[in-house]
Amino acid sequence: KKKKKKKKRKPKRNIESRPKASERKVGNSNTKHSCDTPSRTNNDYNSDEQMEDDNVQEMAGVVHKGVLYLVDKASNVAYSSMERDENEELIKVGMWDKATGDIHLTPISEKKQKGGMKKSADADTESQADTIEYPFEVLADDHCETPLEAFQDISVVLQKYSDSKSANKLKIYDPYYCAGTTVRHFKTLGYNHVYNKCEDFYAVVKENKLPKYKVLVTNPPFSGDHISRFLEFAMASGKPWCMLAPNWVYTKEYFKGSGLFYIVPKKRYRFLPPPGARDAKKSDTHKRTSPFPCFWYCGGFSAEFRQKLMSSVLVTSTMYSHTNQLPLEFVADFDPRRKQLRNALKSKKWKERKKLV
After folding, report:
1. Which residue of 50, 148, 200, 332 lies most exposed, with the fewest beta carbons within 10 A?
2. pLDDT (0 to 100) of residue 127
């Protein structure tokens, strides 16, 4: 039998005998090359990681009067959990009292006690603004004006309902007051009979002092139970109503979707606080405040009217008769259909890329 030849192992190279990078020869040159910047050690990287860890805020969620806030435990600063500035950074809204667990907001309700909050017909005339005394509690996160684009979208419904010729005579009631922009926007669109005054809506209902109106159009505060209380009132009123609200409303138990339709914008709305409502941010400009898509929920209209509206041409929005028809960007996070739509979109994109290959 032939003996197997043993493979000779190559001797290990002495790592220490290797020339350093700065001493290696380049071509025929025997000169040493020095590096402009010194090499970094593990300690340098560890120090960088330590600096990053020091910059990370340790945040905790704190619920105050039914609203969730984010609290920096190190500085006790309270931030809004619902909004970010244009740089996607947290926005300070007050301070956290560690002893009592309460949030002391920089609220509009405090400004009201000191003399009120400024309002103006336009941001350019802010210096001439007068003060508003609110007969109800106002939270900074809720205190935002409905944009003109939203009223333009719902104006198509109102014109159809009033038969367009008598649109300027249509009596509209908006029970939630902010700073008076609602009346001005509606007036721009040709509606001159709009009731939106600085009064406590719930007190008005309790005292049975409601104004005369034909249709409800409003953007209620998103926090607390304002949306559910408005829906209860609107459905019991027996009159048509249009509510601008977040996409998650239709997933709530209190929501009854029968006989409704939805006006969904093709571009997300921007909700702006009135001048003086919030402390100036880095850019001293108003920021977008709603982190979730919003659209119009419409109810109280007859089936005949809904059918008539379906034939209308909508330019900046789309009408849907059921929430199952909503496009992906307006489907609520807790809607099981959202995952299905996302998977279908990914599959479609993958097939398109495959065709290109």
Report:
1. 50
2. 34
